[in-house]
Amino acid sequence: MACSGAAEEHIEVHEYGTFFIGGEFVAPRGTDTITVINPSTEEVVGRAPEGTQADVDAAVIAARRSFDSADGWGGYTPHQRADALNRLADELDARQEAIATAVSSQNGMPLAVAGQLEINYPSAVFRYYARLAVTTAYEERRPGFLGAGDTLIERRPIGVLAAIVPWNFPQALTAWKVGPALAAGCTVVLKPSPETVLDSYLFAEAARAAGLPPGTVNIVPAGGAVGAYLVSHPGIDKVTFTGSTAVGRAIGEVCGRLLRPVTLELGGKSAAIFLDDVDLDLARIGEALFTTCLLNNGQTCFLTSRILAPRSRYDEVVDAISALAGSVTVGDALDPSTQIGPMATAKHRDRVEGYIAKGKAEGARITVGGGRPASRPKGWFVEPTVFADVDNASTIAQEEIFGPVLSVIAYEDEDDAVRIANDSAYGLGGAIWTGDPERGREMARRVRTGTVGVNRYLPDAAAPFGGVKASGIGRDLGPEALAAHLETKSIYV
Ligand code: NAD
Predict the structure, then answer these.
(1) What is the pLDDT of residue 5?
(2) For the segment 275-310, what is each residue's pLDDT rounded down to a tens digit?
(3) What is the CATH number of the domain that holds 288?
């Protein structure tokens, strides 16, 4: 494991004192403050007010007004919505450097990762939905089956959306939620995670500069209790949530009682199946492998943290995965050469270390890592860690660790590999590594998850993304996400 030095540039402390509600930056109703700490250095990088129920009330009223008003988002044609989404993408592009730095200094995401997935990627998602806003059929005349007449099928925006996002990819996930909602004609109350509030102000500035009608997007950063208040607010028509399975279950229960539509993108414990014909040369597959199993310090929902290796090549796979984890550069998230940064919070670092201790106690063998990098006395770092001889029934193979910790599990034949991959409470992602892409596609079809890659993995804006089982309900991205923000009405004519 190589270690990069601390970033040399001086990090400004960003102080915010308002919320973006009704198209303006307005004073908060409460007095509490969120303090944001840089996980690489443990220094304060920003402060912002913490939202209250009264701020949520104001945001919901503003969103409703824009939705209902002929001068607001409700009066925009699909072409006007597309133009506004493209302007929003342009305004985000104009703030790229500030956004990437804000994200990396809050959640520890390496700047090199933020520079792709937290800037270019979100604006591409908004441009994708701008295109979809004008190509979606909002009305259709369907010939009757019973002969009595035709039916006009209308597809109308659902209304005011509550969007709740986690800290791990704050901008990408905001785009996943806000893009299809705005394209469909919905208005939004967005609640960012308290760990990543600073970039949400840059998003708010972009939304304002793009000239979205006041109240179309409103942003109230706050913790879980205010998030729960937003979910059950009588002015909300649909909830879309990305975060942990535990919170997703709680939100799903409330939405079930209220009969409120909900999309839940939750945790994962995905498997990478290495077939016996796999090319293990890291010079060829190392970069793609890193993205699928260690991206963003292991703090990515879809990562394949379970590595399934054929018994015949088990030691080779363990050696390759250990070499990969052992060779990455661990360091300050703002250092451009860093590949693995710190855990987002001290509490989360403790949680990840708890799993490493549990893995050892349950008899798995550490081949690399297992501790804290000696060269980084400050910051919430964990060494990239690989466990071999892992039983799929053990805690580290069943529970989401959300850190740079990989488990290598042996399988006997392809049926056994599929059985182990599917022996999980989760069903979000997965990957097949093979020298034969057709064989990989056949295996991919047998894995019970919402998404799976063959020799690569990265969600695409045009393809639905989401999970089955404890990984959630519904899909982000693709036309499917836009359709999930429309309600249909049949008019028999
Ligand atoms: P979390 O569930 O603790 O928090 C997510 C968001 O929900 C935050 O904004 C938080 O303030 C809010 N929240 C907390 N309690 C709430 C409540 N009772 N009601 C309403 N809102 C509430 O998750 P986290 O730790 O921020 O994020 C990590 C988790 O997110 C991991 O489990 C990861 O797998 C998951 N995730 C899933 C996807 C996906 O697309 N499936 C993507 C990224 C992250």
Answers:
(1) 45
(2) 999 999 999 999 999 999 999 999 999 999 999 999
(3) 3.40.309.10
Per DSSP, the residues of 70-129 read: TTSGGG--HHHHHHHHHHHHHHHHTTHHHHHHHHHHHH---HHHHHIIIIIHHHHHHHHH
pLDDT tens-digit map of 17-35:
999 999 999 999 999 999 9
The set of residues, in sequence order, having a beta carbon less than 8 Å from that of 284 and lying 6+ positions away, is none
**Average pLDDT, whole number, for the chain?**
97
Answer yes or no: do 190 and 54 share one domain.
yes
Give 310's strand partners. Answer: 411
The reply to whether 466 falls in a domain is: no
- pLDDT tens column, 60-95: 999 999 999 999 999 999 999 999 999 999 999 999
Catalytic: which of 91, 265, 383, 400?
A: 265
Residue ranges lining ligand 1, Cβ < 6 Å: 164-168, 191, 193, 223-224, 227-228, 231, 242-244, 247, 250-251, 265-268, 301, 400, 402, 428, 467, 472
Range of the domain at 298: 271-461
255 and 289, same structural domain? no
Whether 175 and 311 map to the same domain: the answer is: no
Give helix 96-107 / helix 78-93 axis angle, nearest 10°: 70
Which CATH number covers residue 256? 3.40.605.10
In a domain, 118, yes or no: yes
Are 283 and 336 part of one and the same domain?
Answer: yes
The structure's pTM equals 0.97
